[in-house]
Design a protein that fits this description.
mainly alpha; membrane; DUF423 domain-containing protein; transmembrane; transmembrane helix; DUF423
Length: 138
Amino acid sequence: MNPVKNQSIRIYVITTTILGFLAVAIGAFGAHGLKETIGERLPVFETGSRYHFYHLIVCLVITTLYSVKPETVSKSIAVSFWLFATGILFFSGSLYVYAITGLKILGAVTPLGGILFMIGWILLGVGINQSFLSPKKN
């Protein structure tokens, strides 16, 4: 396998693994360590955790596809991976910080994360269409 491609796959695997670790660790922290202290902000924390896991699963699927058949991952799919990963940081991260601290200042970041998720879904659809559904030209 091409060493550059192999390094790219490694970056996807590391990123997905870190996001997965954080999803479980932060979720457990919220469920066991915050339930009594954040009160009415617990649903905000749970929303961040839910979206973190949803988009982590998509990142895992893209990473797996990239690891098994890297030639099938179009530029659109690759970009969608990074939009999902960044969206997790902005959307879920800002909700975590707000739920834990009560700081509303990061509220402006949350919609940006949501927009990154939406653009990621559009690019994922475009990439799937390009890579798997469009007729191949000879």
